[in-house]
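Exercise 7. Predict the joint structure of the components listed below.
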Amino acid sequence: MTQDTLLRQITDYANRADPYPLYTELRKKPVRQEGDELFVVSTYWEIKSLLHDPRISSDARNLSPGAAGTLLQEEEASPLPPAFLRLDPPEHDRLRRMTMRPFGPPETPRRVNGMRGELARIVDGLIDGFGDRKQVDIVDDFSYPFPVTVICRLLGIPREDEARFHAWADTIAAGLDPDPGGDPGEQRRATHEARTELGMYLSGLIDERSGAPGDDMLSALVTQHGPDGRMTRMEVLSTAALLLIAGHETTVNLITNGTLTLLRNPDVLERLRDDSRLAVPLVEELLRFEPPVQLLPQRTTLADIDIGGTTIPKGASVWLVLAAGNRDPKRFPDPDRFDPDRPDIQHLGFGSGIHNCFGAPLARLEAQLALTALAQRLDAPRLVEDPPPYRQNAVLRGPRHLNVSFDGLRS
Amino acid sequence: MSGDHALEWLRREGRIVIVGASLAGLRAAETLRKEGFAGSLTLIGDEPHEPYDRPPLSKQVLLGHASADHTELPRRRGLDAQWRLGVAATGLDMAARRVRLADGDEVEYDRLLITTGVRARPWPHPAEAELDGVFVLRTRDDAARLHRRLAASPRRVLVIGAGFTGSEIASACRERGLPVTVAERGAAPLVGALGGVIGQVAAELQRAHGVDLRCGIMVTGLEGDSAGRLRRAHLSDGTTLDTDVAVVSLGATRNTEWLAGSGVGAGPRGIACDAGCRAFDIRGIVTDDIFVAGDVARSPHAIFGYQFLSLEHWGNAVAQAETAAHNMISSSSERRPHLWVPAFWSSQFGVNIKSVGVPSLGEEVIVAQGSLADHRFTGVYGYQGRVIAAVSFDQTKWLEFYQRQIETAAPFPPEYSSVDRRPEGLRPVPADFPDPSLPTHGPSVTVSGYSPTDQRITFTPARA
Ligand SMILES: Cc1cc2nc3c(=O)[nH]c(=O)nc-3n(C[C@H](O)[C@H](O)[C@H](O)COP(=O)(O)OP(=O)(O)OC[C@H]3O[C@@H](n4cnc5c(N)ncnc54)[C@H](O)[C@@H]3O)c2cc1C
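Solution:
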């Protein structure tokens, strides 16, 4: 098997349902050169060390012209400047810090936990909404609407606008998930339009919040005047869009992958039903076993870096295959086994280092509550189809639909 | 009995005694059980409390965010141990393998682990140290007492010594809105641990937070009123300071006196041991049944030219205890060296400080990322052309990288470009550590150089 076909096989939709054998193959060489300026890293320690390496940049402007071609197209479609996800320190640190202030410690340590009751109510409401159906699509009926509703509440989107928001989010998410049969030009146009409309909508909301701030994150971002100064309007816009899109697209997959994994491991499902405390280690293991972000394709090198027996030259595009690192047998014994009792579970599911997932505390809590509620409330759930149909996207990997049948709902 | 049998017997029904029932002692005991030690386990501690955690004492506890008696260390497993708490070990008979206790009891062992740590160095004038209002901070009881006094809103707190503990205490006082004066003999806070360049940043931080920081100054006397309450401090510049609370933060003294005359290689600098945590006897010969871990240990580190390091670091106590425990019940071929790269953290004035390696070995320092002026940076220390340590202020997430640089003896100064390298970070400057031949108040890391090729071990006297 040549190196080139391996990466192509991973991005090939045919292998979406189970890319893990390909990752095993990939790990035989920790750092693989794929073409002139693309390097793929697949082993745990090498990924971890690159995530902490200050010679690695997240800013696309540092790519050499040759490597820039390999970038995902998603960004050209965006009318907004890059959010902190795609910036380096010090800009990254400043924007991330300012975004963190209304979201988490040290300034707002209780925000996420304070949402627990509301999150549980949203989850229960969605499950109640299954009505007397005996089969639902977990994606459309549950794991998709849940995080979108949450992010709306968090940002302070008025309830009456949530529906419009869902529609934009849908379109943008679909843009990340190109339909192989569809017209790519048309799809890109639709995504661009949705992003523009979303931008205009947020812009209007920002005006409103500057005058009459509420308790939500958007108000906080708009009015904040701390040690780091203020965010510009464009910065608030791109940050809000980042939170919206990154904030739910990934959690959908975490919850769906989790449901799928539980249904494939009925003993664990049963344990979770009887003891909701299992949700905490279970979600960690899930983030190792089936991470919603499979790889980070957006890094580049500021200098030549020797790692894993290879020199990655300056300006190269570096892909870090988190999902492969998570199953590196040099790091985790018996890595292909789903085992929520692992004592040592420092997974790469949220990345590591300065770009470590911003929304991790919220995503964790959402997944814990969602999976526990499903385990407790669905009576005798089973998969209708295994494997289920997957989304096109190899980076944000997850089922497009997950049909589950059950005998009824428990209250 | 062959060696294998002896070991098997030890693991099954041997007697292991741990003197010092704190962080290192507890972690060692847990590791022994985890690795299958089924014999009898005794933990001896002179404090009456179950093992508790010290880092919160100078942070959360002083701020009132946690109560001093709720700092117990989490127990990771059942230990099935005999606890002899509230009783000190007073002596050791190496030949008879027996530990003497203050209550007259004696405990026999087949393997002994010493984790007696350090204690706060007291104010040198006993009468002044007795004054009501003079504190040290090492134990849970110290923290409870000091917290109570801070909560009673003293007019001014004097912190004597601006090492990590003193600086953290000053920070907590400021956060509580109390007026604070810090008196430091050196040129800047943290200068012994991090050098003068980084010390200047610490000084700016203190002043920016309203600390009345006085460097190059010694407190020469503490004065009380007729009721024995602290009233005033006299300083070496001839001035006096009205104050009702003084916290003496002059570093630590190793708890080794109880071993005097025992034949163990114990001195004021700690107990010397090999990289496998086996204690040396006074002749410099390694013992086979006495092990050491934590703040009281001095052990050679391969990465730092086999120099003997004494580290007062939480992470060191944990890692060394685990290594010691493993080696105590393993055959020689299975023993592991304590190769932990020193790492230390502190939080003060809203800043997270973390270091890896041994900064005090550094000759030069370079601001590899960020900026000193922003108080947000990573400083990298160089020693003879290699990277020897790094410290970060509010930038911990890069340290793993610098740790690798230290482990692989990467060249200093770093030549590569990196994110957030500023113009000030292009050239190294002298790290500006105080002359080691002059006395300073115990930096948290002290290093002295005896390589394994040295013929014998001698303890240098304690610093004044
Ligand atoms: C206020 C404070 C803040 C700190 N903050 C940090 C920090 O932020 N980061 C960090 O890395 N480290 C910090 N440290 C250091 C860290 O707490 C120590 O490195 C750690 O406690 C060492 O553990 P140990 O078990 O070796 O020694 P110790 O914790 O000192 O325990 C030794 C125990 O042995 C007992 N003992 C002594 N002699 C005898 C005897 N003869 N018989 C019986 N028992 C005896 C002692 O009373 C004590 O209970 C801090 C320490 C203090 C005091």
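Discussion. Chain B has nine helices and 30 strands.
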